[in-house]
Amino acid sequence: MSRTKPSNNVSNPAVATFEWSAMDGNFTAWDSVNKEKIVLTDKIRFAVLDQLSNLSGWVKELGSCRSHETHNISAAPLQVFAWKDGKSRLIKEGAYKDIKDEMKAMGVKYHKVVYALLLGEVNGIPDGSIVKLDLGGAAMSEWIEVGVKDDWAVEVGEPEEVQINKMIKYMKPSFKQIDLSESEERLADGADAELQEFFSARKTPSAVVETQEEEPEVDVDEEIPF
Question: What's the predicted TM-score (pTM) here?
Fold first, then answer.
C-alpha cells in the first residue's frame, strides 16, 4: 500500500538511510549524497510514503547481508546477498518461511523499511527530502506496536529506556502521529508518486506493489535490542 498509484524512473529518490541505535538512544543516518554516517540530533518529523520489508544484518565472516526490499515478504522467494571488500555474493535464496530461522541464527533478521518525506531539515538533510528508515529490533518493535499507517505523519519523540535485567538495558524510540497541513499533504503525494515510479521501474520482486494485509509472524521480543 502507498499514498498514490505507481507510474516510471530507476533512480532511488531516498537521499539518506536512518537507523536506530538501541545502545545510544538515537537515530543515525547514512547520507548517500555526502557518503558519511552522522548522528541525528535535530527533531525528526516525516510523512510516511510507503512501507516494505527485507532481511538485513551484519555477519562477521560475510560482512553486510541484505535481501531486496519487498511489499510482501511472503509473496516470492528472497535472495540474500553479502557485501564485503567491495564484492557481493548470493548467500541464500528461498521463501521467507523456509529461510528465516537460518538467517536469524546468523544475525540477518526481518526489518521494516519505511520510505518517508522529511518535514523539516535534519542535521543538514534538507526539508522535503525523501529518506529511508531501516527499522530493526527495538525500533521495529515500537513501530509495529504503534501501528503506523502509510498515510500518517510522524514525529520522533524522546527515547525510552527499557531494563531487561540488571545487566541488560536498551533504548527504544517513540513515534507520535501528527497532523499534516494541506501543502504538506500535496508535497507528500508528489514525493510518493516519484517513489512509486522508482518501484515500478525496478526489474525485481520489490518493484511489484502488493498489499500486505498483516505483518508476518515476527517475535519482536527476541529481536530486541539488536
Answer: 0.84
